[in-house]
Every structure is written in C-alpha cells, then in structure tokens.
Amino acid sequence: MIEGVEIKELVIHRDERGTFSEIIRSSDDIFNNKFAQLSYSMSFAGIAKAWHLHKKQTDWMCTLIGDMKLAIYDTRKESSTYKELMEVLMGETCGRKVVKIPPGVAHGYKIINRSEEHTSELQSHSFISYAVFCLKKKTNIKKNKKKRKKHYE
C-alpha cells in the first residue's frame, strides 16, 4: 500500500426500492480535510485517463456506475513508498470503494467491464476543471484534424 493512500469499502443497503450507500462523511477517518469541490465524470469503455498529479490537492475517488482499474504511483522522494505502483479495482462489480489519493501521488485509470463508467471525485482544492477539459478537447480535435488532413493529401 502506498503511503498516504487509503481505501474505504462502502456498505450498500438494499431493499425493494433500490440501494443506498454513504460515500463519505466528515467524521470518516479517511476524510480529515475540508473539501473545496465535488466533480463528476463519465468515460467510455476502454478509455484510459492518466497520469494526474497534484502538488497540493488531495482527491477522494468513487466509481458510481461501471468499473475501473485505478493505478496509483508514488512520486514523493521523501516517501517510504517512493516509486511504488499499486492498482485498485473498483466499481459496480469490483466492489464499491472510496480511494484517498494524497498530493504527490500520480493516478490514472482505465474503464473496464462495461460500455461506460461514472465517477464522483471530491477535491481538497478548487480549480476551473471544465475550462481545462474543454481546452484539452479542443487541442486534441485540432491535432486530429491535422493528422486526417495529412493522411488524405
């Protein structure tokens, strides 16, 4: 286990109406900070999103629909688990979990077992994430157009 990474197994309550699960409470040992932002993302099957690395931000990730393989890599030179890699399977069929990822620990994931996956992510710092997403998307579209144009010329 990478130093500072924590995993909370979620309890799922089921009855004839459906299910209910508490993802995170301020009293949980895994959650000792106040949060700044709650994000939601949807990714398609087979998509990998990596690597994400934050200098100051702590992330708490939870897969709501679908499954993912989360890879976590310790880049902190002062850590006892420096350069260690760990993988966590999480989601509908892999087990519901919240994974705490501290600053300086790189993380990325791949969608498995389904056509799409939905994740909720709590962050200790806020930022303009939608603008970053649009900028990356626009940059990728421009690159792809150039590749297609060269291919057909």
Structural class: alpha+beta
Strand order of the largest sheet: 1-9-6-11-4
What's the β-strand tally? Answer: 11
The shape is: globular
Task: Summarize the helix and strand pattern as letters.
Answer: EEEEEEEEEEEH
What percent of the residues sit in helical stretches (DSSP H or I)? 10-25%
> Count of helices?
1
Supply Rg.
17 Å
- Residue windows where pLDDT falls under 50 for at least 5 positions: 141-153
Instruction: Give the biggest beta sheet.
Output: 5 strands, antiparallel
Distance N terminus to C terminus?
51 Å
Percent in strands: 35-45%
Give the overall average pLDDT.
83
Q: How would you describe what is shown here?
A:
The chain is α+β, with helices and mostly antiparallel strands and 153 residues long. It is built from 1 helix and 11 strands. The protein has one helix at residues 129-152; strands at residues 6-9, 13-15, 18-20, 37-44, 48-52, 59-65, 67-74, 85-91, 97-101, 105-112, 116-123. It has a 5-stranded antiparallel β-sheet with strand order 1-9-6-11-4, with no helix packed on it. β2 (13-15) and β3 form a beta hairpin. The protein is globular, with a radius of gyration of 17 Å.
Please describe the topology of this protein.
Blueprint: E1 6-9, E2 13-15, E3 18-20, E4 37-44, E5 48-52, E6 59-65, E7 67-74, E8 85-91, E9 97-101, E10 105-112, E11 116-123, H1 129-152
Antiparallel strand pairs: 1-9, 2-3, 4-11, 5-10, 6-9, 6-11, 7-8, 7-10
Features:
four-stranded antiparallel β-sheet; five-stranded antiparallel β-sheet; 11 strands; 153 residues; alpha+beta
